[in-house]
Give the backbone structure.
Amino acid sequence: MDPRRSAGHIVIGFFRIFATMMKTQEKLTHKEAVKKALEMLGGKALLKQIYPVAIKLIGKNTNSVDIKATIRRVLNSNPFDFKATPGVKGSWELISFQEDIATRNSRIAELEAQLVAKDKEITELMKQPTEDSFVKRMVNATKNLFGINRKHADYVRQVLLKLGRDEEQEDLLAWIERREQKTVKKVTKKIIQKISNSQIFNGSITESEFNGGGTNNGK
C-alpha cells in the first residue's frame, strides 16, 4: 500500500471523527446558558455578574450589547425559572436553586433542633450521679445510719460486692469493726464501772482499795 494513501486515510478519518463530535456536541440555548450561569454563581447574582458567565457559555463576545439584551429578556420572560431578588436592584435568582436551598435550610434547621434536644438530654444525663458518687453517698449514709440499723450495713456490703466495689466494701468493713470495737470497749467500761460502784456501796470493797487497784492486806 502506498504510504501517502495510508496517511491520507488517517487524516480523513480524524476529520470525520472531529466533525461527528462537533455535530453531536450539545449546545446551550440562551435560557440554558443563563440558568447554568446562575447555578455557577450560587443561585443568585447581579446582572453584571451574570453577563460574563452566560455570554461565555453562549459563546458570544462579552462586549455584545445584543447578547446582554437577550440575557435580560430571558430573565424577564421566564417567571417560572427566574425571579428578581426582592429589595436588591439588578439581582436575579434561579427559582429551582432557591427552592433547593430552602429545602436544605429547612433540613439544617431540623437537624439543629435535634442537636439542641440531644444537648439538653446529655445535660440532664450529666446531672445524674455517677457510680462512684452514688457508692460514696451510699457508704456515707450507711455510716450515718449504722447506730440505728446495724443490718443495713450488711445489706450495703452485699450490694458493694455485687457491684464489684471490693475496695469500698473492705473500707466499710474496717470502719464497722473499728466502730464495734469502740462500742464494746465503751459497754465493757460501763459494766466494770457499774460492778465496781456496786461493790463499793455494799462494802465488798473500799473506795481506797478500788482507787488503789487492790487491798492493803491489813497493812
